[in-house]
User: Which sequence fits this backbone?
């Protein structure tokens, strides 16, 4: 009896886990240190030290993550934020002003934006 | 602002791009649908006014990324006043157009009842919007951008409202004695099919809300329905003056310091301060433009619906529906929800209620549906088509700007969407509207209760941001410890 319940439970568990696959299961809003050189049109090559991945994230997560990351990097360093939320992108120039950093560029790609911010004015 | 953006795949003319074609396809669909409706009966023009204003609202909301949730949220989350400024611009313009419409005698506005319920409901609503990533209108336009997370929010708002207004159970007892007594008195004058002493929301409505008064500033000051009352009391005192005060406050608290540092002015003159305020208002051009457009359109919407009511000699779309032979789903007064201006949450409650009704859960014995708003078929729900219009309008704009992208929720965002959306629905019903119906449309028409709503929503958003930040820190810390870092 106990075994049947346990098996049934596991079946249900598998079913529910299967439902998860309908949704994308990539973690939303992750960030990590990277070192890469990016050629930003109109600005030249810029070294990025930290990338924030906000694909699929709803506001205010992108803003809060950016706030946090900018607190961790050093002055003059560049952070890349990858977004697919048009509303969040719109707010980044204003966000940069408040956070005391320089809004370098928003590079448009087919399904995302890459926003570059430099710490410090 | 030096925004360097690259354009990709510019070989095809922008009109010939696939996404532009799709945008035109959606537009054509709305045109053909409208023509089809008119071919059925020309009186559907009344419903189509909602469709096309909705379409325009949606396009403008998407164009300006006009996220009203961020107006209050971002003040606390990241200390950015961008959207708060945009909303204030829209309020000022709506108020001016609303004054003209009122002076012309075509206003469709009804004041909301003033009371404590507004603060409490608005706070619950404001708490919810932090977790859903958008208000009721914001979720509609984001759905139009292909965001399925926002679609979930709308579903949650629809059903939670429908349940709140019609459910009955042990929680019915959680009301003050005075509400029950007042509701019992009201029940004597009510038809038997309405059970207004049963169901929490019915007791709340009959026992509390009906005892409250909603007035415009002009009435309070004894200048009702005079030109002076409309211009001085309703427009200048209730809308323009608070807008100016709020803009000055936003400038001083959030913008002034950074602006003066950037422009290198140590001893700013009044002229510099005014230039700073102007810079704040125009810092996001799209948002400011959308605010202007939305303000003007929202006023015009009242005018067009008001003029059509005059033309058909009706007070409510229900009368037209009866005349056209559609009598299903009307309230016992033969009315349906028909505000005549921009409104969001009530028609979404009707969607949820209609589906529940079809599933055999009777909701028509409630005051909200049975007496006031009815439960029309979604195909005949005029304000409902305004919500669909917002989705389609936003989709057209997003497709044209190549910003449309199907986005499926993750488990975390889906959970937040459902919980936040449910709270938004609950809050919107308690406060008798959302940030559109209970704030935007009220303060611009001389009803000061909208400012109370804004205060409540701000309090809720403040608490919401605190909880959301705590959640983010906690979940990051947990993930880090799981990875053994």
Assistant:
């Amino acid at each position: 009896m106990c075994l049947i319940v346990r098996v049934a439970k596991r079946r249900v568990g598998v079913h529910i886990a299967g439902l998860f696959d309908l949704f994308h299961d990539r973690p939303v809003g992750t960030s990590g240190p990277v070192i890469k050189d990016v050629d930003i049109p109109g600005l030249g090559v810029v070294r990025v030290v930290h990338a924030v991945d906000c694909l699929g994230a709803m506001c205010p997560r992108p803003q809060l993550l950016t706030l946090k990351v900018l607190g961790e990097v050093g002055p003059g360093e560049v952070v890349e934020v990858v977004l697919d939320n048009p509303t969040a992108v719109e707010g980044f120039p204003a966000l940069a002003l408040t956070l005391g950093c320089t809004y370098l560029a928003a590079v448009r790609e087919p399904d995302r934006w890459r926003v570059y911010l430099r710490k410090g004015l | 602002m030096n925004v360097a953006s690259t354009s990709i795949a510019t070989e095809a003319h922008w009109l010939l791009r696939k996404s532009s074609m799709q945008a035109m396809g959606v537009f054509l669909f709305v045109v053909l649908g409208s023509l089809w409706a008119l071919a059925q009966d020309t009186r559907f023009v009344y419903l189509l006014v909602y469709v096309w204003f909705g379409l325009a609202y949606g396009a403008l909301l998407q164009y300006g990324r006009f996220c009203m949730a961020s107006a209050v949220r971002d003040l606390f989350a990241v200390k950015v006043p961008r959207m708060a400024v945009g909303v204030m611009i829209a309020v000022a313009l709506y108020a001016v157009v609303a004054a003209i419409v009122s002076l012309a005698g075509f206003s469709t506005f009804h004041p909301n009842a003033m009371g404590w319920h507004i603060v409490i409901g608005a706070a619950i609503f404001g708490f919810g919007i932090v977790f859903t990533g958008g208000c009721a209108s914001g979720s509609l336009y984001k759905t139009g951008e292909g965001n399925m997370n926002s679609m979930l929010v709308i579903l949650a708002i629809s059903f939670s409202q429908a349940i709140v207004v019609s459910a009955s159970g042990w929680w019915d007892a959680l009301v003050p004695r005075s509400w029950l007594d007042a509701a019992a008195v009201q029940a004597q004058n009510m038809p038997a099919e309405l059970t207004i002493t049963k169901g929490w929301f019915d007791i709340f409505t009959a026992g509390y809300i009906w005892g409250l008064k909603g007035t415009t500033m002009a009435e309070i000051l004894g200048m009702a329905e005079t030109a002076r009352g409309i211009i001085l009391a309703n427009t200048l005192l209730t809308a323009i003056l608070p807008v100016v005060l709020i803009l000055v406050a936003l400038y001083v608290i959030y913008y002034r310091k950074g602006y003066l540092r950037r422009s290198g002015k140590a001893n700013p003159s009044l002229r510099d301060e005014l230039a700073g305020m102007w810079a704040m208002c125009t810092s996001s051009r799209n948002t400011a433009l959308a605010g202007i457009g939305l303000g003007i359109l929202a006023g015009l919407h009242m005018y067009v619906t008001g003029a059509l009511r005059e033309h058909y000699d009706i007070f409510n779309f229900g009368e037209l529906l009866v005349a056209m032979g559609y009598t299903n789903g009307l309230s016992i007064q033969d009315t349906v929800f028909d505000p005549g201006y921009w409104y969001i949450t009530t028609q979404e409650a009707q969607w949820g209620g209609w589906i529940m009704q079809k599933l055999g859960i009777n909701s028509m014995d409630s005051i909200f549906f049975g007496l006031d708003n009815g439960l029309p078929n979604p195909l005949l729900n005029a304000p409902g088509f305004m919500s669909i219009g917002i989705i389609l309008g936003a989709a057209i704009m997003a497709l044209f700007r190549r910003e449309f992208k199907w986005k499926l929720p993750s488990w975390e965002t889906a959970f937040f969407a459902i919980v936040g959306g449910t709270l938004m629905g609950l809050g919107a019903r308690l406060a008798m509207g959302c940030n559109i119906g209970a704030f935007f449309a009220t303060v611009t028409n001389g009803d000061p209760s909208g400012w109370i709503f804004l205060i409540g929503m701000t309090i809720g958003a403040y608490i919401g941001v605190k909880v959301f930040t705590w959640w983010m820190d906690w979940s990051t810390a947990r993930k880090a410890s799981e990875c053994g870092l």
Observations:
- Residues 20-25 of chain A have pLDDT under 50 and may be disordered.
- Residues 27 and 54 of chain A are 9 Å apart (CA to CA).
- DSSP finds three helices and five strands in chain A.
- Chain A touches chain B through 46 residues (CB under 8 Å).
